[in-house]
Predict the structure.
Amino acid sequence: MSNEHKADPGQYTVSYRSMDAFIAIAFMVTASVVMWDSVNVGASWASDGPQAGYFPFYIGVIMFISGLGVLLQSILTKKPNLNTFVEKGQLLSVLQVLIPTAIFVALLPYLGLYVSGALFIIMFMMWIGKYNIIKAASVGLIVSIVFFLLFERWFHVPLPKGPLESALGLY
């Protein structure tokens, strides 16, 4: 059973073959970083047993070989899957979630979890949910305040805070 999904003209973005190759290369890069870092912390067998990077190094080797296998298969196959991996409409739906999430992660070191989380909820509700600013801001602020009380005050689990919490003396 083949994946016979042909995109309408103008809807094509990338093929399964291209995505297989891209993910395989990304997997190999990740494996290389794991192996490099493992060698830096020690990836051999010491007199008292394996060093800290011993097992991660070999996991990296397995990851790299697996990625190389997928890459070679995607390049050398005689019948590549050139069907559309994702259409433009589907890609836009994914980006509607990915973009606010990336902004949230980028703001975390500068604004802290609670302010970034409130902004994430507000932006997401307004952009995807089409809620007005009053409802979105109310929910964003209430959720952040509840999470702050829950984690910081009741569970005593310190999470990343930003300048607002510092200015309010909430450290």
Summary: The CA atoms of residues 100 and 123 lie 7 Å apart. The radius of gyration is 23 Å.
